[in-house]
Amino acid sequence: MKKIKVKIDWEDNYCAYSDEVLGCVATHKTFEGIKEAYASALEFHLDGMREDGDELPAKLQGAYELEFEMTAQALLHHFDGIITRAALSRITGINERQLGHYMTRYRRPRPAQRLKIINGLHSIGRELTAVV
């Protein structure tokens, strides 16, 4: 099954787009909602392409699966209030102020910093699931 990568970002709401499907975007207030909204928007977009007689991108012909990837800003916003910046700072080695800059988009993290944030969240998750 073909995979379509969909990026989820944060800009006052979650927003989703794919570099593989130009012109199809969605927004929603919740993380679960944005996934559903993008899937719906994509179907609407493809129906419109079919009606207009446009050729569908090869990846969208037949069965496909959406693979969602969150930006660092969307990740930090999603977990804000659930995991403190202090806890995330301790586990990632990125100071709280810098995490705040990433969350507000004052600065954008390099790929290595984004990976530290993801690994830190996974580490916290593993610790939480290890509790009996």
What does this protein structure show overall?
By secondary structure, the chain is of the alpha+beta class. The protein has helices at 31-52, 72-79, 85-92, 96-104, 111-130, and strands at residues 2-10, 14-18, 21-28, 64-70.
Quick summary:
This protein is α+β, with helices and mostly antiparallel strands.
Fraction in helix: 40-55%
Number of strands: 4
- Unreliable spans: none
Order of H and E elements:
EEEHEHHHH
Distance between the termini: 37 Å
Q: How many H/I helical runs?
A: 5
Structural class: alpha+beta
How do the strands of the widest beta sheet line up side by side?
A: 3-2-1-4
Largest sheet: 4 strands, mixed
List descriptors.
elongated, 4 strands, alpha+beta, 132 residues, 4-stranded mixed β-sheet
Provide the fold topology.
Layout: E1 2-10, E2 14-18, E3 21-28, H1 31-52, E4 64-70, H2 72-79, H3 85-92, H4 96-104, H5 111-130
Parallel strand pairs: 1-4
Antiparallel strand pairs: 1-2, 2-3
Helix pairs in contact: 2-4
